[in-house]
Amino acid sequence: MTQMLIYEKIVVLDIKKHKNTRVAPVTDFSFAASANSIPIAGVEFIEASKDYPIAFIKNSQSAYIPTIILGLQDNQNLFVSKEGKWNAFYIPAYIRRYPFVPSTTNEAGKLNICIDEAYKGIDAEKGTPVFNEDGTPAPMLEKAVQLIQDYHMQMQHTNSFTSRLADSGVLQEMKAEFGTRDGSKKFRLSGIFVVNEEKLRALDDAKVLDFFRKGEFAWIYSHLTSLSNFARMLDKFFAQPK
Predict the structure, then answer these.
(1) Sequence-distant (≥ 6) Cβ neighbours of residue 225 within 8 angstroms
(2) Where would I find the H helices in 171-216?
(3) pLDDT per position as a tens digit, 175-217
(4) Is 5 helix (H, G, I), strand (E, B) or coil?
(5) Burial of 207 (0-12, 13-18, 19+ CB in 10 A)
(6) d(CA 28, CA 150)
(7) Residue 98, SS3?
(8) What residues does each domain of the chain span?
(9) CA 66 centroid distance within chain
(10) Cα–Cα distance between 82 and 76 in angstroms, integer?
(11) Is the peptide bond before 53 cis (omega within 30 degrees of 0)?
(12) Which run of H or of E encompasses 55?
């Protein structure tokens, strides 16, 4: 899973190049139709758990990344319709910030704000201006920047939480076999990690209190509750037209 997951042509926003650029609101989510999972910040767990399974996936550095599961196969998003509609109430911040995205932090400690020039809603005549006439960020861009900065800050907290969760030894790989109610079709799921509730209850009081004081215990149980959404996803999967 990478920063480039749903982006095709990322460029740094530049007043000279993008002075007259206008961006229409995102109403077509086809850009995410092939994303079968996306990162999620801990602060999103409670709302996201109402719609999606939340699990943990190891990245190339063996760090655990909190992840929303969107599909049961590669390049499959069961929450984006053929018409590009997002079929869930809560839309994750990772998706809501599109077509904007931060690049790596620069020397001044600030995020560079980029835009996906492949976004079909970019137009020099239609949409909302990115910059004001005087070259300052327009309200639309200010709102996008605030979302990106908030998300970046929340992910730092989330990474700390996930690291401590992994160190506590409560994460275990989930290997499951799902099937239709009549048993005619089966599907195997592996490579994702979940909290073992028995190990969680066995943690010493100091660790439990630490998670609680940091507001993270609710995240853990939102994750556990969200796993029931796999059954709903399976219904979506088998209900797809052939």
Answers:
(1) 49
(2) 197-201, 205-213
(3) 877 766 677 777 777 889 999 999 999 999 999 999 999 999 9
(4) coil
(5) middle
(6) 24
(7) coil
(8) 10-239
(9) 8
(10) 12
(11) no
(12) strand 54-58
Burial class (CB in 10 A: 0-12, 13-18, 19+), 231: exposed
Neighbours of 18 (CB within 10 A): 20
Grouping H, G, I as helix, E, B as strand and the rest as coil, residue 10 is: strand
Q: Report the C-alpha gap between 37 and 34 in whole angstroms.
A: 9
Q: How far apart are CA 76 and CA 89, in angstroms?
A: 19
Query: What are the C-alpha distances in Å from 35 to residues 77, 129, 159?
Result: 6, 29, 21
For 111-155, what is each residue's pLDDT tens digit? 889 999 999 999 867 889 999 999 999 999 999 999 999 999 999
Residue 124: count other Cβ atoms within 10 Å of its Cβ. 10
Predicted TM-score (pTM) above 0.70? yes
The answer to whether residues 12 and 116 touch, using CB atoms and an 8 Å cutoff, is: no
Can you give the length of the chain in residues? 242
- The dihedral of CA 197, 198, 199, 202: what is its sign? positive
Interacting residues of 122 by C-beta distance below 8 A, sequence separation 6+: 21, 22, 23, 24, 99, 115
Helix 205-213 to helix 217-226 angle (10° resolution) is 90
